[in-house]
TrEMBL record:
Keywords annotated in UniProt: ATP-binding, Disulfide bond, Glycoprotein, Kinase, Membrane, Nucleotide-binding, Serine/threonine-protein kinase, Signal, Transferase, Transmembrane, Transmembrane helix
Listed name of the protein: Putative non-specific serine/threonine protein kinase
Keyword presence, Transmembrane: yes
Residues that hold ATP according to the record: 525
Amino acid sequence: MAFHLLYHLCFIVLALLPCSTMAQTSKNISLGSSLTAQNDDNSSCPSPSGEFAFGFRQIEKDGFLLAIWFDKIPEKTIVWSANRDSLVPQGSKVELTSGGQFVLNDAKGSQIWSANSPSTGVSYAAMLDTGNFVLANRNSTNLWESFDQPTDTMLPTQSLQQSGKLFARYTVTNYSTGRFMFSLQPDGNLRLYTTNFPQDSANFAYWSVKNTEIGFQVIFNQSGLIYLTSQNGTILNTISVNPIATQDFYQRSTLDYDGVLRHYVYPKRSTSGEMWPMAWSTSSFIPPNISLSIVEKVGSGGCGFNTLYRVDNTCACPNGYSFIDPNDELKGCKQDFVPQSCNAPADDFDFDEWPNTNFPGLDYEQFQGMAEDRCRQSCLEDCFCAVAISNIYRECYKKGLPFVNGTIDSSTHGTKALVKFRKHNSISKKKEDSTLIIVGSVLLSSLGILNFILPLITYVVVSRMYSRKAVAVPPNYQGMNLKYFTYEELKEATNEFKEELGRGTSATVFRGVLACDEGKCVAVKILDAKQV
Ligand SMILES: *[C@@H]1O[C@H](CO)[C@@H](O)[C@H](O)[C@H]1NC(C)=O
Ligand SMILES: *[C@@H]1O[C@H](CO)[C@@H](O)[C@H](O)[C@H]1NC(C)=O
Ligand SMILES: *[C@@H]1O[C@H](CO)[C@@H](O)[C@H](O)[C@H]1NC(C)=O
Ligand SMILES: *[C@@H]1O[C@H](CO)[C@@H](O)[C@H](O)[C@H]1NC(C)=O
Ligand SMILES: *[C@@H]1O[C@H](CO)[C@@H](O)[C@H](O)[C@H]1NC(C)=O
Ligand SMILES: *[C@@H]1O[C@H](CO)[C@@H](O)[C@H](O)[C@H]1NC(C)=O
Ligand SMILES: *[C@@H]1O[C@H](CO)[C@@H](O)[C@H](O)[C@H]1NC(C)=O
Ligand SMILES: *[C@@H]1O[C@H](CO)[C@@H](O)[C@H](O)[C@H]1NC(C)=O
């Protein structure tokens, strides 16, 4: 986090000229101009009002984004970028060639991106006060506009035409193409989709405009309204209904990394008595409730596998699970415990209860007339069962891994999700004591005795391992409630150390079953030094 902040503070940029040299008089960028990505250099091309700027922003240590951002606010919020999926190193250069081509080359001179403008006719480039960066001809007709190639954001006066798309960024701090898409399709339907990430094809539409007429364009007008119109200008659907004055507020509409399209506002001045803080605030958003909207046939849902959507539409890992990547929660959750064995008792497992939780979709078993206690028991004894759903109609549903579609939904009364987890999870504790082998398990009935006996067992096993000689148990201990094991017995119990449960810095833990003790499960810890 600190790392990211650091780099966000020292955004950067540009070496050369056009804007800086022409500064006050003209904002036009002439043919033959270029800008170079450099650390510790913040020069950039501002728009005439200074509200927007164009240039390189440093995103990671040696990764620059050619971008447009709000330049008068401390956040310097990025609204467009050319190379979101391939950051360029220091020394990379964007150039408006003498032939009128606008190209981004990396430090070695390889082309990373170029504006798909006509091959002739461009006579200058300009960063406009609307946030639009344009290539224009001598008559000031725009031949190319950044507004026509949006990334994840629309600005007032910008519109989205048929076939136009916004793609969410990947995470808050990663600008690359993410998992959600806002699309005005060629057929005129306006939709929000999950994508088949990392491909950008549409997967599941979780919001769409229900209109009978064909949508022609999405307009974000200067009054801060966002709406879909038909070809003759009739408003078919209003996406953002609250008018907000552009002279008083910076505004943007961004498809965020979490799949929500939000209309943000930021006061231009701190006018006393205003209700808006000096920061980006959400004025409106779609869909109204994303957690209830995403139920894909395939895919990991809006939150990733093994997650549940909370009421506030954020993602949660149930007990026994944790985020695969805490900086990228939508990657889903991983199981932190040793999975249940199919031929061992289930006493070690319990359920994390999620009341009012809906879990539509695939169940591998369903039972009618089964009360909650029996539903629990059924899932507990079933090594395939990761989640059981029990409701007041005495229905019981079982789900395996990975599970998806879990959503807390206050309208589903009397349905609860029971997520199975291991109660005493030695692996997740990761405590690596330096004592050697063996861990007793259920076998030793009293802790007092365990404390007393453990050094002995340790001694026994260690000697076995290194000497492979039989060790006699001192007579004093005979007849007490304890068992000791030969190396061969442990080898047999663990099926020649086959099933690894976990690994520490100095030892590896294996699962074993004791033939002599009604098949009880044990964990056998073994020093790495020894060769099996
Ligand atoms: C930019 O160049 C065009 C065409 O030469 C000219 O009409 C326009 O006034 C220039 N703009 C500025 C801000 O200098
Ligand atoms: C660049 O901007 C950052 C943040 O505003 C500032 O701390 C830094 O001194 C600037 N660097 C230069 C070379 O102007
Ligand atoms: C500029 O406009 C004039 C008159 O409208 C036209 O004749 C000319 O072809 C235009 N030039 C370019 C480069 O578009
Ligand atoms: C952003 O996320 C993508 C997709 O996971 C990854 O390939 C890329 O390296 C990330 N970029 C940064 C700057 O972390
Ligand atoms: C924005 O659109 C609304 C609805 O069509 C309209 O009432 C308003 O006048 C428009 N604002 C501008 C500046 O065009
Ligand atoms: C626009 O077209 C629709 C039919 O496609 C029609 O019902 C409506 O009256 C038209 N509106 C205008 C302003 O022409
Ligand atoms: C999620 O829900 C949808 C809609 O009910 C369903 O088609 C899909 O199979 C579910 N996914 C899983 C993995 O259960
Ligand atoms: C989303 O749905 C949940 C569950 O029905 C509800 O508690 C919550 O208030 C809803 N949120 C919005 C913004 O509608």
